[in-house]
Every structure is written in structure tokens, then in C-alpha cells.
Amino acid sequence: MTVFNTATEDELSECVAVKLVTQVVPGGTIGLKLRKGGAGYLRSSFNKFCQMANREYVLLLTDLDRLICAPELINSWAGGFPLPEKLLFRVPVREIEAWLLADRQGMAALMGISEASLPSQPDDLPDPKGTLLNAARNASRSVRSELVVGRNTLASQGLGYNRVLSNYVETIWNIDRAADRSPSLRRAVDRLTNLP
Hints:
Layout: E1 2-8, H1 11-24, E2 28-34, H2 38-44, H3 46-53, E3 57-61, H4 70-78, E4 87-90, H5 96-101, H6 104-111, H7 128-136, H8 141-147, H9 161-171, H10 175-181, H11 183-193
Parallel strand pairs: 1-2, 1-3, 3-4
Helix pairs in contact: 1-9, 10-11
């Protein structure tokens, strides 16, 4: 049994981290789930995660967002110091939604739309979440009403966004299919399959 603590920005990223550990790592189980306050919390707690990773595995997921590249983000957090072997610092390019979109077959099934209407290279998108929300505007009514908000509202996503997409991750999302279309997810999977 290999126990992983997860450190994530939000509920959706946590759900992805749990699925990665339990499906990719032989005997992978979850210890602590460390999530509160988004990327700011992760960055401010980074040294604690490094200390924890001296003893046990920590999978840290944070979105790349507007930065140029994942190594730049990791280096800025680590201050040029090497990461502990048991800290798996993985960066979805640009957002966790890119990894979800990368399973085109699964996302098409969730939304009731054609695979062709979904991006073939989601890591190249400047705004994966926006792309997912735009695709959801053509989704079946039940999914659309949960993911998308009306045009004249301040919210960027529907009230059921995290619930519906977390359920998608747990029940439909296929890591292998998604990793075929997302290089950043492929790197995460490769790292998890080659633990120190």
C-alpha cells in the first residue's frame, strides 16, 4: 500500500488527484486531503508540503494559469532548491479543466455532444475552463443548467459545476484516454508510475 497526501486548489482538483493516485499507483491510497483557499494556500504552505514529503508522498496539483511554463512555476515556488523525492508537484496546463477535456469521448458522453466539437489539444488552450463552459452551452439541458450561468450574472459557473464535474471524474473520466491528448497529464501519470 502506497499512501499519498494530496494538496490541491479546489474540490475538482482534489477529485482528480484522488483518482490519479488510486488508479495509477499500484496499491495507491489517500492519506490527508489538504485543500483550502486555492493556489494562495498551496504556495503559502509549500514549505510544509516539502517537509511532509521528506517522510511520505505528497501529490500537489496547481494550475499553470497565466504563467509561461510549468518549470518556471515550480522553480518560483521552490526557490531554485531541489524538491524532495516524494513531492510530486504536477501542473495542469493551463487549468485542471484541460485534463477533463482531454478525454473527449468521456466529455462528449457527459454533455451529450459530439467529440468533434471538443478541442483535440486542450493543453494548448488559453482558457480551458472557458472552453469547457462554452461547450456546456450546447450540452443536454440537465448538464447545461448545472454548469452554465445566465448571461447577465456575476458568477462564472453554475452552482452544480464542481458537483457535476467531480462526479464526471469519478465515474466517466478515463485517465489513459485523457493522457493521450494532454502532455501535462501524461507527465503526471508517468511520474506516478515511476515512484522513487
